[in-house]
Amino acid sequence: MKKFFQAPPRLGNQYDDDRVLRSFLRRNIVGPVLAEIEPGLRRLGARAAGEMIGLALEAERASPALVQFDAWGRRIDEIRVSPAWQAMHRIAAEEGIVATAYERRHAEARVHQFALLYLYHPSSAIYSCPLAMTDGAARVLEIEGEQDLRREIVPHLISRDPDTMWTAGQWMTERSGGSDVSGTETVARREGGMFRLYGEKWFTSATTSELALTLARIEDSRDLSLFLVRLRDEQGRMNSIRIERLKDKLGTRALPTAELLLEGTPARLIGGEGRGVKKIATMLNITRLYNACCAVGFMRRGLALARDYASRRHAFGKLLSEQPLHIETLASLQVGFEGSFHLVFFAAQLLGRDEVGTATVQERRILRLLTPLAKLFTAKMAVSAASEVLECLGGAGYVEDTGLPVLLRDSQVLPIWEGTTNVLSLDVLRVLQGEKVLEDLFAELGARLENIPAILAKARQNLLAALDQIRLQLSQLLAGDRAQMEACARDLAMELSRVVAGVLVIEHAAWSLASEGDMRPVVSAQRWCGTGLIAPSGALISRSKSWLRYSHSIAIDDNLSRVQESFA
Ligand code: MFK
User: Fold this and answer.
1) Does the CB atom of residue 281 touch ligand 1 within 6 A?
2) Is 127 in the pocket of ligand 1 (CB under 6 A)?
3) With a cut of 70, which residues of the chain have pLDDT below it?
4) Concatenated DSSP letters of 32-67
5) What is residue 265's predicted lDDT score, i.e. its pLDDT?
6) How far, in Å, from the CA of 166 to the mean position of ligand 1?
7) Counting C-beta atoms within 10 Å of the first and last residue's C-beta, which end of the chain has fewer, N or C?
8) Residue pLDDT, tens place only, 447-489
9) How far is the CA of 438 from the centre of ligand 1 (A)?
10) What's this model's pTM, rounded to 2 decimal places?
11) What is the pLDDT of residue 566?
12) Other C-beta atoms within 10 Å of 90: how many?
């Protein structure tokens, strides 16, 4: 009897196959520019489904190694990475993953660049991480850097030449805190007309980078300042930096993440003394949007694999693609992906406008809010989507050499680094308390819901009702008790993300129907804006009031009498 072998899932050109990306670009990038940039997107779409897949697997298998001593006992602290990882650097430079945003050849350079990143990331073994920090550093130096830094360093960060392109790190985390950096212990001392840093950095990604931005407290100062560090000296030796060890992580295994000891590392003060957190926030906001873009890249990759597999796998006498429940599962994934995609690419659009000075004050405020929302929402969506995708492939999804488990492992970092979901939810609260943010946001969303065709009337009505409700709850919450406000922050951020994405999805569906005659975005929009957009009326607030009464008892001290008291 002939033995059965299952055909594995295959990927086509990741640009050509992506209806959602292509439709978004058609709407937002004018025809002649799109025609000019499409060959590059298509080339990367082919690389991402071709040579990069093998390179990513190889980079993951041959994870980086730390060599601390040479044969004669001298301390060298070298991180050895695989040729596959180095190839990711070359491809990133050649395809202009960072450069495109800074060349600003057309009005939607950031959108163009995010499209490239979105195609590159799922096949990059997380080389997207050093690129995120490189981009963030370039932007900080554009804004805060003195002329010599802008002249001598920025061109390396945004180069298209693999041999001259540098990457940058972002060192914020110390043993005392990853979320709360106020306990930073690294000290900057003035020695011989320069600053030298003394301290330990506990979680430094991409330690093979040429430079890093980091925080330190200038001696006798209470505030943190921002510094630029060159990792190696003229001879290529570590610049008074010891690499203590590499982290053994759940995922991102090709990415060298190290613990560092700064032993008098020469450093350049950026943007004057103090307000270091505020200055590095420019970098954080860019890496957070990278995070969100990479999350939707992963979601799209998972869907591409699961959908292809559904047309190759038989069960119970039918293809998976003919099974109603499997179809529903994939459809839900697709709808979740589309909403997330629009949230991220809208933020990219606003970021681009902000960078070239064409954003209105309102748009800048909305971008500040949208950045943590897009990051926190898409990261959670990506983890649950990756888990579902593995399940769509059954046992094969759980087996290492299918290349599927890495999707889940690597997605799991997205809600953690660059600010956890809770820290970002609190950041959202902070932004919402700022001047006029809510009015700006609701005015923007309302304007986008005008001229929606009848076929989307119900979805629009649901959204408007959700918007009214969230606005009411927000005004009550923001006027209320701080503890309750914080306890609600995550639910609030999730609901806000869903309604903002809903508006964008409806708006795009209306355009796509009118301009492309495509009903598919309409169907997705109807589903996104169906039930469950937000909790039933007032539930967010009333739930949290009762929760607060007993949640400490069930979560922390397990105290029965306190629960009884609260019910008495
Ligand atoms: C695949 C994608 C690749 C992603 C790359 C990954 C690379 C991995 C490297 C890392 O993981 S680096 C570590 C990332 N760490 C974080 O994201 C830290 C998370 N914690 C926070 O975000 C905290 O909220 C924060 C550190 C900002 C709190 O610090 P503080 O010292 O309590 O600051 P504070 O007082 O909250 O804010 C100081 C100022 O900064 C305020 O301005 P004002 O003084 O004018 O009022 C804030 O408004 C401002 N600020 C804070 N966050 C901001 C911001 N401004 C703009 N944007 C923000 N996001």
Assistant:
1) yes
2) no
3) 537-539, 542-544, 546, 566-568
4) HHHHHHHHHHHHHHHHHHTHHHHHHHHHHHS--EEE
5) 97
6) 24
7) N
8) 999 989 999 999 999 999 998 888 888 888 888 888 888 988 9
9) 21
10) 0.97
11) 67
12) 15
Tokens of 426: 């609190």
HEC readout, 239-278: CCEEEEEECCCCCCCCCCEEEEEEEEEEEEECCCCCCHHH
Pull the structure tokens for residue 299.
Answer: 């979601």
Tell me the H-state helices in 104-186. 109-120, 128-144, 147-152, 154-157
Instruction: Answer whether 175's CB lies under 8 Å from 168's CB.
Output: no
The token duo for 155 is: 């061109």
Would you say the CB of residue 153 lies under 6 angstroms from ligand 1? no
Among 538, 439, 452, CA closest to 503: 452
C-alpha distances out from residue 315 to 6, 39, 225, 303, Å: 11, 39, 60, 19
Task: Considering only CA atoms, give the Rg of the chain.
Answer: 24
Q: Are 464 and 499 in contact (CB under 8 A)?
A: no
Write down the pLDDT at residue 537: 67
Residues in the chain: 568
CA 512 to chain centre: 26
How far is residue 211's CA from residue 222's CA, in Å, rounded to a whole number?
Answer: 25
